[in-house]
Amino acid sequence: MGNLNGLDSIVSQLRGQRTELVRELRHVDAALAVLGKLEGGRSYTEPRRHSRRKMTAKSRKRIARAQKARWAAWRAKRGDRRTLPAGGKGTMSAATRRKIAIAQRARWAKVRAAE
Questions:
Q1: What is the widest separation between alpha-carbon atoms in the chain?
Q2: Residue with the larger pLDDT of the pair 5 and 61
Q3: Residue ranges of the alpha helices (H) in the chain?
Q4: Whose CA, among 43, 65, 91, 100, lies 20 to 30 Å from 107?
Q5: Which domain holds residue 19?
Q6: Is the pLDDT at 43 greater than 70, yes or no?
Q7: CA atoms within 13 A of residue 59's CA, in its CB half-sphere
Q8: What is the number of alpha carbons within 13 Å of residue 30 lying toward its C-beta?
Q9: How many CB atoms lie within 10 A of CB 31?
Q10: 36 falls within a domain
Q11: Helix, coil or strand: residue 55
């Protein structure tokens, strides 16, 4: 238990140092605020206010339609006929699935034969 007494004093010293640092930071913030206002700009301590440009839903839809048209024109120029259905996932034909299954069985047969 002797170590805990030493630990208590260390913790209290650290708390004292933290209090001192907070006080010093307040002085630094105050100085920055004053100097920032002297330059005519906003001070360091003032929160940033982002003025985001607002866009209506109608404008976003118009931009989205225009971008989709650009992509469609690019694909048409390239001759790309590979498009996915509306759900976003392509489907495999039964014949393709059969070919993949046969190839996979052959790979596993080769692995088992090597064992």
A1: 83
A2: 61
A3: 2-38, 57-78, 94-114
A4: 91
A5: 1-46
A6: no
A7: 4
A8: 6
A9: 13
A10: yes
A11: coil
CB-count burial class (<10 Å; 0-12, 13-18, 19+) for 50: exposed
Residue 97 backbone phi and psi in degrees, to 5: -60, -40
Please measure the distance between the N-terminal and C-terminal CA atoms of the chain and give it in whole angstroms: 62
**Within a domain: 19:** yes
At residue 49, φ and ψ (nearest 5 deg) are: -120, 110
Q: Can you tell me the distance from the alpha carbon of 15 to that of 4, in angstroms, rounded to the nearest whole number?
A: 16
User: In the numeric block, which tokens belong to residue 115?
Assistant: 């064992």
Q: Using CA atoms of 14, 16, 21, 27 in order, give the dihedral in degrees to the nearest 10.
A: 180
40 part of a folded domain: yes
Structural domain count of the chain? 1
The pair of structure tokens assigned to 27 is 């002085």
Tell me if 107 is assigned to some domain. Answer: no
The percent of residues in the chain predicted with pLDDT above 70, rounded, is 75
Most confident range (mean pLDDT) of 37-46, 49-58, 98-107 is 98-107
